[in-house]
Specification:
29% of the residues lie in helices and 31% in strands. By secondary structure, it is an alpha+beta fold. It has a single domain (3-166), classed as 3-Layer(aba) Sandwich (Aminopeptidase).
Length: 174
């Protein structure tokens, strides 16, 4: 497998939405309330793509996963109950989802490593993210990749665990 992270385009929106719908169903089956309130949805994906914030994890022509990458713009993060590790520029990632047919291959971890590379390529040294308190898979990935728990942030009325990783040129684990 030769996976890459690249900006999504509008022709990929339907496939991305299929991947996210299955991820939403998985979260529900796991008993989680994350992503059970109409978010994310196809309009969000289209907006991500229009703003050039939507990214696909691909292997050749196959879309394996999706995420949104946002530079220095996450209003909820300014209201953290806790403290970030840094106040410098940052990349935040949201809406991480891997296609059902490719689960269990370490692709979410690979995607986040590629996000870290993208961050460094843009001369930014901080990656921030959040997840629901019951998203055990993502919590495990954060731990395994060296992310630090910084506190809680709030989205759509619910608390999320917030994490940050401060990067150096030697911190990428691919």
């Amino acid at each position: 497998m030769n996976v890459e992270l690249q900006k999504a385009d509008h022709s990929q929106a339907v496939k991305i939405w299929e991947i996210l719908q299955k991820a939403i169903q998985r979260r529900k089956a796991e008993g989680s309330n994350q992503w059970q309130d109409g978010y994310p949805n196809l309009d969000i994906i289209k907006t991500d793509i229009e703003k050039e914030q939507g990214f696909v994890l691909i292997d050749g022509e196959d879309i394996l996963g999706y995420c949104a990458l946002i530079l220095n713009d996450e209003p909820a993060y300014a209201e953290i109950e806790g403290k970030w590790l840094s106040d410098d520029d940052f990349v935040v990632f949201h809406r991480v989802a891997i296609d059902d047919g490719h689960l269990g291959k370490g692709l979410a971890k690979k995607m986040i490593s590629l996000i870290e590379e993208y961050t460094l390529e843009n001369n930014i040294y901080s990656v921030k993210a959040d997840t629901n308190f019951d998203n055990m898979a993502m919590l495990k990935i954060f731990k395994n990749l060296g992310y630090t728990y910084c506190g809680e942030v709030y989205f759509r009325g619910g608390a999320r665990k917030a994490f940050e990783k401060v990067l150096s040129k030697t911190s990428i684990n691919i």
